[in-house]
Amino acid sequence: MGTVTRGTTNPNRLRRMDRWIAATHGAELRRAADPVAVDIGYGAAPWTAVELLQRLRTVAPRARVVGVEIEPARVAAAGPYERDGLVFRHGGFEIPIDRRPHLVRAANVLRQYDEGEVAAVWARLCARLAPASGASRGGLLVEGTCDEIGRRHVWVALGPEGPRTVTFATRLGALERPSDLAERLPKALIHRNIPGEPVHAFLRDFDRAWAAAAPYASYGARQRWIRAVRDLADDWPVTDGPARWRQGEVTVAWEALAPRG
């Protein structure tokens, strides 16, 4: 179920997303008896699935990854890269595995869909996640978009209950202003970057905080970013802290940026 993507892929393209997943969801994966992650729409080459396994196993040594592609030829081409903990399957949003995954990553997949289709895809994927139980919040869906070499990336994190947060991540040395990330907003938000919508107001305020933090640029782009995010957090529900900000990231509660209407 789904549509064949362009298949564009490059090694290390999703490193920012993967590192965030490892840092924020690693404990959930470690607690699971058999932690399974799914990489939906890995593209013409399997690099993103291979790298996801490597990065997850730094925090959850038992983690397994299933790469899922709707194009059969891509699944066949990925076969030689299978190894312990990594397999490839033909399929789409139905997720063709016999258990509920603890992580689903869908990067640069929904960009080609209509905005009106996103909610249904999110609901389908969230329904397949491992459920919350006890101390566990359940599985995690991470859906977003990045540029071709992974310098700029924005993603939404969703649990079984629905959207939780939006994360903006960038290579700070190449950033002119935070609103440069607007072109990488996920499909649910990219057409909402207009006056009157929360995401537009957020990026406007972020640019203002960035400009006000200009004196910190003499200490480096990282210090300027940290100062800007501190100021931004006075008015927006930033959910992470300096340890993530230092990576060129900031995460905001979904409810603050969700489209109106």
Condensed summary:
The protein is an alpha/beta fold and 261 residues long.
How would you describe this structure in keywords?
single chain; 261 residues; alpha/beta; Rossmann fold; 2 domains; eight-stranded mixed beta sheet; 8 strands; 19% strand; globular; transferase; methyltransferase activity
**What form results from the Cα inertia axes?**
globular
List segments where confidence is low: pLDDT < 50 over at least 5 consecutive residues.
none
Write down the Rg.
18 Å
Mean pLDDT: 95
Describe the structure.
This is Methylase. Keywords: Methyltransferase, Transferase. InterPro entries: SAM-dependent_MTases_sf. GO terms for molecular function: methyltransferase activity. The chain is α/β, with parallel strands linked by helices. The chain contains 9 helices and 8 strands. The protein has helices spanning 15-31, 47-57, 72-78, 115-128, 187-190, 198-212, 221-232, 242-245, 254-257; strands at residues 36-40, 64-69, 86-90, 103-107, 140-146, 152-159, 162-170, 249-253. It has an 8-stranded mixed sheet with strand order 3-2-1-4-5-6-7-8. Helix 1 (15-31) crosses helix 2 and helix 6 packs across helix 7. The radius of gyration is 18 Å and the shape is globular. The model has no long low-confidence stretch (mean pLDDT 95).
